[in-house]
Amino acid sequence: MRLSDLPKGACAVVERVEDAHANDLIAQRLRDLGFVAGERVRLVARGPVGADPLLIQIGSTRFALRRAEAARVTVQEDVA
């Protein structure tokens, strides 16, 4: 499942960040921010227009991501 498809309020575990091309700076920045395999994330909120941006929480830190950026992150929904 893509992070951009996660239901509001749901938690998930990051599986990977997909590179769109070689030397993908956006994918690398996502990894630098903490979107790495095994990390727990939560979709806190969606923007009012077109559900963009998404408010994502990793630990105690929150990030606003565009849907296109969040779609690069593959997650497994956390049922615990």
From TrEMBL:
<dbReference type="GO" id="GO:0046914">
    <property type="term" value="F:transition metal ion binding"/>
</dbReference>
<dbReference type="InterPro" id="IPR008988">
    <property type="entry name" value="Transcriptional_repressor_C"/>
</dbReference>
<dbReference type="InterPro" id="IPR052713">
    <property type="entry name" value="FeoA"/>
</dbReference>
<dbReference type="InterPro" id="IPR038157">
    <property type="entry name" value="FeoA_core_dom"/>
</dbReference>
<dbReference type="InterPro" id="IPR007167">
    <property type="entry name" value="Fe-transptr_FeoA-like"/>
</dbReference>
<dbReference type="Pfam" id="PF04023">
    <property type="entry name" value="FeoA"/>
</dbReference>
<keyword id="KW-0408">Iron</keyword>
<protein>
    <submittedName>
        <fullName>Ferrous iron transport protein A</fullName>
    </submittedName>
</protein>
<feature type="domain" description="Ferrous iron transporter FeoA-like">
    <location>
        <begin position="1"/>
        <end position="77"/>
    </location>
</feature>
